[in-house]
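Recall the central idea of this unit: under ordinary conditions, the amino acid sequence of a chain determines the structure it adopts. In this exercise we apply that idea directly, starting from the sequence alone.
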Amino acid sequence: MDERDWQTEEFERHRGHLRGVAYRMLGSLSDADDVVQEAWLRLNRSDADSVENMRGWLTTVVARLSLDVRRSRQARREDYVGSWLPEPVVTVENGDDPEQEALLADSVGLALLVVLETLGPAERLAFVLHDMFGLPFGEIAPIVGRTPVATRQLASRARRRVQSAAPNPDADLTEQRAVVDAFLAASRAGDFDALVAVLDPDVVFRLDRGKLPAAAREPAMVRGAAEVAQYVLARGAPLAQFARPATVNGTAGVVVAPGPRPIAVVGFTIAEGRIVEIDLIADPDKLQALTLDE
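Accordingly, the structure predicted from this sequence is:
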């Protein structure tokens, strides 16, 4: 095996890990793939013989690139209308083995990604690399330009915010699916009381339609069981008939598809048998790679 073949093999061995780091930093599969591709180009331009720890070297490159993307994204986000939600990882369920389907989706849920979005870039990087991937603070510190002690503090601050803001979802996918099915049945029947019954009193409904002109007429967020139920019956009930079961970032969700191309993905966060968060993603840019068989 020559050097180029070895380099390619090593990179492919770590591709999944690198994509996971970038996705948790950026909340976007397309941006994550771009970052991973740039890391590959930089590896090709480097002296690979001098790299003692390929996984560590590539992780550092991906982390730095992700920081750059996050910082440049802030300016673009100023023109965004409504809620910004992550690009979902979707697997359409075929009804044979939903638990297996869940294993195919990325394990980080939409609810956690929404909370991560509230962190500063350095905080998010410290938390992602240490708490999610187990990197020591001594390796993270040079990436964020801090001392190891200061980096530990960044991660600790981020951890407190995540623990206080991110819900602790139910783990059983079958039970999640039963709650989502009840939500859809109530939506299709126009049953307000049945809808309220499956919603947590403090449920949050977020809507991401990207930069579509119509998005300006939609609320970015609706809070409260009665308010969410009213909104769903007034605006979302017609879409329920086109909802197809899916796993969305590892939890029960739906894809709304009148035809082969989805018009929305809906993720649900369920805790103690009730829906605590609903994330509706209808941004065409985040759905363009998702197609379904008729």
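The chain is about 55% helix and 15% strand.
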